[in-house]
From TrEMBL:
<comment type="function">
    <text>Specifically methylates the N3 position of the uracil ring of uridine 1498 (m3U1498) in 16S rRNA. Acts on the fully assembled 30S ribosomal subunit.</text>
</comment>
<dbReference type="InterPro" id="IPR015947">
    <property type="entry name" value="PUA-like_sf"/>
</dbReference>
<keyword id="KW-0698">rRNA processing</keyword>
<dbReference type="InterPro" id="IPR029028">
    <property type="entry name" value="Alpha/beta_knot_MTases"/>
</dbReference>
<dbReference type="InterPro" id="IPR006700">
    <property type="entry name" value="RsmE"/>
</dbReference>
<keyword id="KW-0963">Cytoplasm</keyword>
<feature type="domain" description="Ribosomal RNA small subunit methyltransferase E methyltransferase">
    <location>
        <begin position="74"/>
        <end position="233"/>
    </location>
</feature>
<protein>
    <recommendedName>
        <fullName>Ribosomal RNA small subunit methyltransferase E</fullName>
        <ecNumber>2.1.1.193</ecNumber>
    </recommendedName>
</protein>
<dbReference type="InterPro" id="IPR046886">
    <property type="entry name" value="RsmE_MTase_dom"/>
</dbReference>
<dbReference type="InterPro" id="IPR029026">
    <property type="entry name" value="tRNA_m1G_MTases_N"/>
</dbReference>
<keyword id="KW-0949">S-adenosyl-L-methionine</keyword>
<dbReference type="Pfam" id="PF04452">
    <property type="entry name" value="Methyltrans_RNA"/>
</dbReference>
<dbReference type="GO" id="GO:0070042">
    <property type="term" value="F:rRNA (uridine-N3-)-methyltransferase activity"/>
</dbReference>
<dbReference type="GO" id="GO:0005737">
    <property type="term" value="C:cytoplasm"/>
</dbReference>
<keyword id="KW-0489">Methyltransferase</keyword>
<keyword id="KW-0808">Transferase</keyword>
<comment type="similarity">
    <text>Belongs to the RNA methyltransferase RsmE family.</text>
</comment>
């Protein structure tokens, strides 16, 4: 945790917050703070700054906070991702928040197991738990938006063309395609399929929506590695 993120529910007075639970445990057991120490803080959805530990009990800590600095700029990237298995999704959510991805669309695909859509992880509070962990790591306060689409064809035909309009849009897929090497600083759309890749029909629909088919190289990557490689290339280009 490189940034203590607080919400309106933590405010206990003017420029004062009370932290308990997981974050309090981290303050005490990992950071080993004491009264008078300063740490980096940020308001969820708002500004960043510093907090001074003013009071500690067995259950909570109170801090005086001052937030005046904007969070780091978001990566102008929309990730469209075939829903992976829950364990992998947790890691991908954290990584996307760390990189500063703006929007995430989780979609269905022929090779996505139906059981994946039943995971409690897709509840908003659960999604935010892992996104927040990424924000804490990257010292950011702005959550990516997450949208769920359980039908592939309506998404690809009705929404994907709108997402791609005016943007650099690619669908990453194994095959004889140009290797992905982003060169534009314009907003981008990155479509990544499930383990085993999209079926040809799905790739064709993505191309019809405005996506260029690209390869991530000759190696066979796990989905989480493909996401990190593609988004990391964008982040390096934009120096973010």
């Amino acid at each position: 945790m490189n940034l203590l993120i607080f919400t309106e529910q933590d405010v206990c007075g003017e420029h004062r917050i009370r932290i308990s639970g997981r974050r309090f445990d981290h303050l005490m057991k990992t950071l080993r703070v004491k009264v008078g120490d300063q740490i980096r803080v940020g308001e969820l959805g708002g500004l960043c700054g510093s907090g001074t530990i003013e009071h500690i009990t067995q259950d909570y800590a109170e801090l005086a906070v001052s937030v005046q600095q904007p969070p780091p700029p978001k990566l102008p990237t929309t990730l469209v991702l075939a829903l992976p298995r829950p364990k992998m999704l947790r890691r991908i959510l954290r990584a996307c928040a760390e990189y500063g991805v703006s929007d995430i669309h989780l979609i269905n695909s022929y090779k996505v197991e139906k059981s994946f859509w039943q995971t409690p992880l897709l509840n908003q509070p659960s999604l935010e738990t892992y996104l927040l962990q990424g924000l804490e790591q990257a010292s950011d306060t702005l959550l990516p938006s997450v949208s769920l689409h359980q039908r592939f064809k309506p998404f690809a035909e009705d929404l994907l063309p709108t997402l791609c309009e005016g943007k650099s849009a690619v669908v990453a897929h194994p095959g004889d395609y140009p290797v992905y090497a982003p060169t534009s600083e314009n907003p981008s759309v990155l479509v990544i399929g499930p383990e085993g890749g999209f079926i040809p029909y799905e790739v064709e629909l993505c191309q019809a929506a405005g996506c260029e088919a690209v390869s991530l190289g000759p190696r066979v990557l796990r989905v989480e590695s493909a996401v990190a490689a593609a988004i990391g290339a964008q982040a390096i280009l934009l120096k973010r």
